[in-house]
Amino acid sequence: MSGYMAYRPTNVRALRDAASRAVDVLDTMRNADTAASGPMSAIASARSIVESWLPFLDGMVTCRAMEGFVPVHLDGSDVRLASLVAMQRDGWTLSTDIGSPAPAAMTGADARALGELLANGDARDLLDSKEELDWLTAQLLAIAGDEELQAEFESELAPGSTRWAEVCDELSVVRLNLDPDDDRRVVDQVFAAVAQLDVDCSWDGPLIAAMEPYSAALLLTFADMTPNELGRSAYVALRGAWELGDAGVLLDDGATERAGDILFSHLVTIPAAATQFLLETSWAHPPIPFHVAYDQELVRDLLVVGTSPDLIDASTAGKIIVPIMQWFLVNGDDRGHVGPGLTAHDLAATLAVPWLMQFETYSAEWTNGDEAGWGWEHAGQGHEALQMILDEGAAYGVLAQQFASFQSAVRDLEGLFENGTLEPRQVLDVADTLWRVLLLLREQEIDWGDDIRFPFDVVMQAAELYVGTLNLPAKVAASVGIGTPAVVDLLEHWKLVPPDRDEVRDIADSTLAQRSIEMTGTILAVVLLQLEARGLVEREDIESFTFTDTGGDCAPTEALAQLRDFVEGLDVDPGVRDDVLNAVTAFMGPGTALLLCEM
Amino acid sequence: MPNDDAAALLVRSARLTILSAQLRTTPAAFLHLKAGTDTWVGPTPSRCFDDLTHVARSIHRAADDLLAAAVKLQKQAELILSAGLCDAQVLHR
Predict the structure, then answer these.
(1) Would you give the end-to-end CA distance of chain A in angstroms?
(2) Entry pTM
(3) Which of A528, A262, A97 is nearest to B47 (CA)?
């Protein structure tokens, strides 16, 4: 209330008259008794104080404009003046006040006045300075911390009122006009205070759907909700962003901080909320996560956290992943305006890697799903989805890179042990999936080799047409024509010729052989470390092994022989040794190694 | 003589008692009730209210002090009167 004063003229006049009479009465009180000297001195002091206010009170009923008390009429545009505006409406007179600010302890009337102003004032004018925002934060927090104040406030502005949507949207507009690196914190504090007022953030309430997705995202970031509620409300908010366009109404297409960016940053810190959000979107609108955020790394983090095998079972993951993959199979990377970096294929690859088993060997788990109707449409659709992912270069990189680390296999290997021994069926299933993916990678590499070669072949054909028009001596044309060894040799020398199909295949096969060795070695390492954890093998025995490059013709055969020799030399129970040998053989048996060399 | 002294003390005591009672009902002791938020709000009104509240407290404290002084004078008078009574009894014996 600093800077203004509100008063009732009739009451001020009565005060002025009473003060004047009080001075007169005190003047009549005299007593010269020495025993009364102390009290009489106090009376004189009191009289002097009262008398000192008389000139001011006299002026109040006339005019004190020259002394800084100028009559004013407030338009209600400053949220800090809510109480004064309410009083003005009730017939009080207002003026400026040059006095020092009074310490403000909020009253019920103050809380009610603030509620009324937020409910009925022009939100844009109410929140247009940092000072007002700071003040508003403090007031709302004070209200949130006091049941009586909150009840008074809510009598004017209920927690479920859609007016909150307008207030929050205006806060968003203010936020977007501030410096992203610093000043926006002022607005975020107001959102945090609003959230503490128990404003209705529920997914089935009217408020989240009524406000701009950007505003809803900010509010939900501070809302006190269970993970499931948060995930559902986040879906409602971001569904709005998706329906309105990639960025919503408040933002332009190039905005780098959108509703999705704000909410995903929050959801990744609450994995159960991330999972619930993805379940909601996959059930209704699978593309939503891929459209509503600018920062694609955040989208990836959301997918990783929300579908982590450490947190959810295969059935839950399938309900999220299968609809997304089916959407990708139909729509590809059609995502509108999102930030650079990861493509939709990259994100799909990220989503797939931890659940490769359900794309291939265990695809039946995700086929013809439960009564809710989700699932691969046929057993091979998971394989098709992987092929689709690999169709795109960068996504191939993501899958190949992550595959090399065998994350999914490492996770699943815990399930390979049953009653302390390796479970042969599980071992073979994991090996089956990994081999399928290895072969998919190889096929893709060969296809790309053909793609690279294709434009060169077209150029060669065009050149041949051109050469055919030249009037060359027949002998020359026959010896150095297009495609003749002399020309091709020269082009290869110049490094202008892409590898031919045979060479591409050789490279892909060599890569496959190397990957198979890495895969088998990794599986063996994981199995041995798990055996060590069970006290069945010593760490120094595990670390005693190193591969030796013998320079032989068939690297897989060489590697397999070394691995088997190492396992057979381990000082372990014979039954355990057989289990480990069987695991190695499941991933690369002697026949497989030979085949790899003959490819 | 002692009776004259006691009488003078009792008169002073009575005047202080009357003044104390007058103070308790003087308008200045209630001014702050007219200067609250029913009348005005703002920094200056708040300062005025604080001042007038201080005035009211001062007046009530002064009234208390006057009454205490009056009681003290009255006790002195009673002592004098009771001492005079004792002297008269001794002489009578």
Answers:
(1) 86
(2) 0.59
(3) A97
